[in-house]
Write a structure and sequence with these properties.
The complex is a heterodimer of chains A (262) and B (83). With 262 residues, chain A is of the alpha/beta class. In chain A, 40% of the residues lie in helices and 16% in strands. An eight-stranded mixed beta sheet of chain A has the order 3-4-2-5-1-6-7-8, with helices on both faces. The two termini of chain A are 26 Å apart. With 83 residues, chain B is of the alpha+beta class. Classes of the chains: A alpha/beta (262), B alpha+beta (83). The interface between A and B is medium-sized, with 22 and 20 residues. The structure holds adenosine-5'-diphosphate and magnesium ion. Magnesium ion binds next to helix 1 of chain A.
Chain lengths: 262, 83
């Protein structure tokens, strides 16, 4: 058994990478999968608070890489789910403390023992992004339906294609279906037309996301909220299940999706 | 009707603007450079065959994530040339 490494990245900051990693990880783990998430945002650690594990950090990613602890010692186990672990980012260092080959080595060490390694990438297209994508078997690019997020996503998809990290899959997060209906927000269909990339998830704008991160209780733990269901669907699609894009379907979406499968 | 209303809203203008921006981001060609390319193309082709320079149209077409440069170059007929 060897793990799949999935990196979630975006180009633009604040579009929902950390939220997605936390929720997809929880969704996979609650389906019995063994999951390790790695916070790749060195110096801007966040995944720990979103997962509610911030009080349990002793060692971090840079400690492992620099040999101050063993890999196992830096893996924080989530008590709510038997097989969910977090390797937190270092908070007092910068991205140059880690190299792409360090990340590849670390993931290779983890691979035999788990099913999934999810990497939370920092925003941008610099060193931290390079580190996060280096070990990836699969890259999910996340965007919001707004002009700057879509533009930055396109840039990142172009880089990933050029580096043969593709084909990438897209998550469209914070879709407000009411605004889409009024014609005041790019629809899923519009974004797919523009980016011409495989779609793996549509996540609605949902205030439960903020409530959940306030509490450090990822949404997909209960699974009743709309965003929680959307994240669970992404996890199921990663596992190879065919899950229809039902709830947030927009007119014409079906033809798009059928025409775009690669 | 719904479609018409929707198209006149801000999402439509976001999409249109993004379409142009993405072409330029992906190809590294802006409108001025495209114009210069067109002039060079006219000069080069004119050395081989008579064309109608005013009728030349070039644009960048999208095909999924790849772009192609499409040039439509009207040729002058042999009769016109002889005159
Ligand atoms: N679907 C959503 N609905 C509502 N708020 C969201 C949604 N996704 C993300 N957010 C909020 O947006 C902010 C940025 O999300 P985050 O995951 O930290 O982004 P990133 O890691 O890409 O910087 C957070 O406050 C988060 O709670
Ligand atoms: Mg983040």
């Amino acid at each position: 058994m060897t793990a799949k490494v999935v990196t979630i990245t975006s180009g633009k900051g604040g579009v929902g990478k950390t939220t997605s990693v936390a929720n997809i990880a929880v969704a996979l783990a609650s389906r019995g999968q063994r999951v390790v998430c790695i916070d790749g945002d060195i110096g801007l650690r966040n995944l720990d608070v979103v997962l509610g594990l911030e009080n349990r950090i002793v060692y971090d990613l840079v400690d492992v890489i620099e040999g101050r602890c063993r890999l196992r010692q830096a893996m924080i186990r989530d008590k709510r789910l038997p097989e969910l672990y977090l390797i937190p980012a270092a908070q007092t260092r910068d991205k140059t403390a880690v190299s792409p080959s360090d990340m590849i080595r670390l993931c290779d060490e983890l691979r035999p023992d788990v099913d999934w390694i999810l990497i939370d990438s920092p925003a941008g297209i610099e060193r931290g992004f390079r580190n996060a994508i280096a070990p990836a078997d699969r890259v999910l690019v996340i965007t919001n339906p707004d002009v700057s997020a879509v533009r930055d996503a396109d840039r990142v998809i172009g880089i990933l294609d050029a580096e043969e990290k593709g084909p990438v899959s897209l998550i469209i997060n914070r879709v407000n279906s009411d605004m889409v209906r009024r014609g005041e927000m790019l629809s899923v269909e519009d974004v797919l037309d523009l980016l011409a990339v495989h779609l793996i998830g549509i996540v609605p704008e949902d205030e439960n996301v903020i409530v959940a991160s306030n509490r450090g209780q990822p949404l997909s733990l209960d699974g009743k909220s709309r965003a929680g269901v959307a994240f669970q669907n992404i996890a199921r699609r990663l596992m190879g299940e065919e899950v229809p894009f039902s709830e947030l379907e927009t007119p014409g979406l079906w033809q798009r999706l059928l025409g775009r499968r690669r | 009707m719904m479609k018409f209303l929707r198209r006149s809203k801000s999402a439509a203008s976001a999409k249109e603007r993004l379409q142009l921006v993405l072409i330029h981001d992906r190809t590294d060609l802006n409108a001025t450079e495209l114009e210069a390319l067109k002039d060079d193309l006219i000069a080069t082709i004119s050395r081989h065959v008579a064309i109608d320079p005013l009728g030349v149209v070039i644009h960048i077409a999208q095909d999924g994530r790849s772009q192609r440069l499409v040039a439509d170059i009207p040729l002058r007929s042999a009769n016109q040339r002889r005159r």
